[in-house]
Amino acid sequence: MDLDLEAELSRHTAKSVVIVPVILSGGSGTRLWPVSRESFPKQFWPLASGKSLIADTVLRTLGGEFAPPMVVCNEAHRFMVAEQLREAGVTGARIVLEPVGRNSAPAIAAAALIVAQDDPQAVICMMAADAAIPDSTALRHALIAAAEVAHSNKVVTLGMKPTKPETGFGYIEMGAPLAEMAEAHTLLRFIEKPDPDLAETLIASGKVLWNSGIFVFTVSTLLEELQAHAPHVLATVRRAVDARTGDLDFIRLGREEFAACPNISLDYAVAEHTTRAAVLPVDFAWSDVGSWSALWDLGEKDNAGNVAVGDVVIEDASNCYVRSDGMLATVLGLEDAILVVTEDAVLAAHQDRAQDVKKIVERLKAQKRPEATTHNLSYRPWGHYEVLILGDRFQVKRIVVKPGEKLSLQSHFHRAEHWVVVEGTAIVTRDTDEVFVRENESIYLPLGCRHRLYNPGRISLTLIEVQSGAYLGEDDIVRYEDTYGRS
């Protein structure tokens, strides 16, 4: 960031500006398979630092000029969002649940309508939950400066100074400086992800920036622009917001109303059509963490340019990204390779094909392979479980229950279960009985019995569950009571 812009941003920082961060957490990150999957997408993984991407995103805008954040997420991920915010020490956040995914325009419209009920002139900044921005101070200064421009009824986006002819990003062509702030410019047009030749031409022109997807506007400006350019989006989302209900600490949008909304991004719905578009060029490190090659860019490299994460040994290789979340992974004599190992899948690819990993996911989905969308490890509001062995009529899981938490009171039509406690203590409800089960003790739950598991202790409860029966799917659960409001 040059000195003139830094001085300008510092001047704006001194002003009293309140910005509501709206974090969109609806993506599935298929280009980062096999780590990122629909059941546990990339924003919940610690890929760029010791914290998850969503935790890093929220922490960048805490305190000072920023109001508590609002997170818009898939309802299936609600407990993961709540838990990761809690672990990050974030308080006062509002979590809005999308019953179905409908892209960024409906998501930000819902957030704006909810914020408008408190302050229709509030400034909101829209950010994806899964970007990496190491310099939080530079980002905060830029958002505050963008908020000042937004008060002039502008739709402002942050444009990132490009460092190479990247084909995985969209581009922005900027025009003349704005009267409101000379460092900001009119936004002439958005350019779709280019092929390599066009990317080279765009970079050589010196007139383009990478499209960060970070937007800043007042609530009233956004709603006016939605009414002008995407009235059906606004109308259907308004009905979904009006039909919202409270669910524990979550705001649940109306299901049928939100499902009727078009599936469209804010770029297509508003940004490409508005006459109020502006761009603030910024020059700090940014990545959308959209591929394994992006993580190679971000990673700490050895003398040969290799990035190693996890239990990895590399010999006589260069410019490789190697990650293992399970077993030992070794690489010998490769260049520009990607190797990613999880408990149930391995990806090997050339760096040049990093953007095509989604084709593998599409093929796996067509084959109805569960590895396309779900992990062996699944998170629940009470803890998590991991599938260890899956056979024709039996399944073995490791279940971990957090202190003070309990599973739902439930029964199964098709399976019986045997629980063995290996750490901690459990109180097990079995029909009308309550049984205290200690380490190295077990209990049998016959098919059809009503049962519940509770951890009364101060340490996590770990048990091995052996299921047996004709059908072992997670949908064979009848819930009678649930602390977390699940049906």
TrEMBL record:
<feature type="domain" description="MannoseP isomerase/GMP-like beta-helix">
    <location>
        <begin position="311"/>
        <end position="364"/>
    </location>
</feature>
<dbReference type="Pfam" id="PF01050">
    <property type="entry name" value="MannoseP_isomer"/>
</dbReference>
<dbReference type="GO" id="GO:0005525">
    <property type="term" value="F:GTP binding"/>
</dbReference>
<feature type="domain" description="Nucleotidyl transferase">
    <location>
        <begin position="21"/>
        <end position="302"/>
    </location>
</feature>
<keyword id="KW-0413">Isomerase</keyword>
<dbReference type="GO" id="GO:0004475">
    <property type="term" value="F:mannose-1-phosphate guanylyltransferase (GTP) activity"/>
</dbReference>
<dbReference type="Pfam" id="PF22640">
    <property type="entry name" value="ManC_GMP_beta-helix"/>
</dbReference>
<dbReference type="InterPro" id="IPR014710">
    <property type="entry name" value="RmlC-like_jellyroll"/>
</dbReference>
<keyword id="KW-0808">Transferase</keyword>
<keyword id="KW-0547">Nucleotide-binding</keyword>
<keyword id="KW-0342">GTP-binding</keyword>
<dbReference type="GO" id="GO:0000271">
    <property type="term" value="P:polysaccharide biosynthetic process"/>
</dbReference>
<dbReference type="InterPro" id="IPR001538">
    <property type="entry name" value="Man6P_isomerase-2_C"/>
</dbReference>
<feature type="domain" description="Mannose-6-phosphate isomerase type II C-terminal">
    <location>
        <begin position="368"/>
        <end position="482"/>
    </location>
</feature>
<dbReference type="InterPro" id="IPR051161">
    <property type="entry name" value="Mannose-6P_isomerase_type2"/>
</dbReference>
<dbReference type="InterPro" id="IPR005835">
    <property type="entry name" value="NTP_transferase_dom"/>
</dbReference>
<protein>
    <recommendedName>
        <fullName>mannose-1-phosphate guanylyltransferase</fullName>
        <ecNumber>2.7.7.13</ecNumber>
    </recommendedName>
</protein>
<dbReference type="InterPro" id="IPR006375">
    <property type="entry name" value="Man1P_GuaTrfase/Man6P_Isoase"/>
</dbReference>
<dbReference type="GO" id="GO:0016853">
    <property type="term" value="F:isomerase activity"/>
</dbReference>
<dbReference type="InterPro" id="IPR054566">
    <property type="entry name" value="ManC/GMP-like_b-helix"/>
</dbReference>
<dbReference type="InterPro" id="IPR049577">
    <property type="entry name" value="GMPP_N"/>
</dbReference>
<keyword id="KW-0548">Nucleotidyltransferase</keyword>
<comment type="similarity">
    <text>Belongs to the mannose-6-phosphate isomerase type 2 family.</text>
</comment>
<dbReference type="InterPro" id="IPR029044">
    <property type="entry name" value="Nucleotide-diphossugar_trans"/>
</dbReference>
<dbReference type="InterPro" id="IPR011051">
    <property type="entry name" value="RmlC_Cupin_sf"/>
</dbReference>
<dbReference type="Pfam" id="PF00483">
    <property type="entry name" value="NTP_transferase"/>
</dbReference>
<dbReference type="GO" id="GO:0009298">
    <property type="term" value="P:GDP-mannose biosynthetic process"/>
</dbReference>
